[in-house]
Specification:
96 residues; mainly alpha; 2 domains; 4 helices; 47% helix; elongated
């Protein structure tokens, strides 16, 4: 079954109109956190889609600062912690 948007898709799953849910990690994590009675869990990763941060071309100061923040957050475990908290799964293999 296909639904109009994420909200309708999640509602159909929560109300047991469907037996499974295929959606983005953030949507699934929010649905699981808001509806623990459903006792849903991740079963299969269909595609791991990367996310990006863009800065204006030539703004090396900002680019360097963003990269520094991300390196520190990766090294100290902050990114992993946030991924677990907000997505319900780890970050996986991240580039250096």
């Amino acid at each position: 079954m296909r639904f109009e948007d994420d909200s309708t898709t999640v509602a159909a799953f929560i109300s047991q109109q469907t037996q499974l849910l295929a959606t983005g990690a953030a949507v699934a994590a929010a649905a699981i956190q808001k509806n623990p009675q459903v006792q849903a869990e991740y079963k299969l990763l269909l595609k791991d889609s990367p996310n990006f941060i863009g800065v204006r071309k030539g703004d090396t100061a900002l680019l360097n600062k963003v990269n520094e923040i991300l390196r520190v957050a990766k090294a100290d475990g902050t990114l992993e912690q946030y991924s677990q908290k907000f997505l319900g799964r780890g970050t996986g293999a991240l580039p250096d």
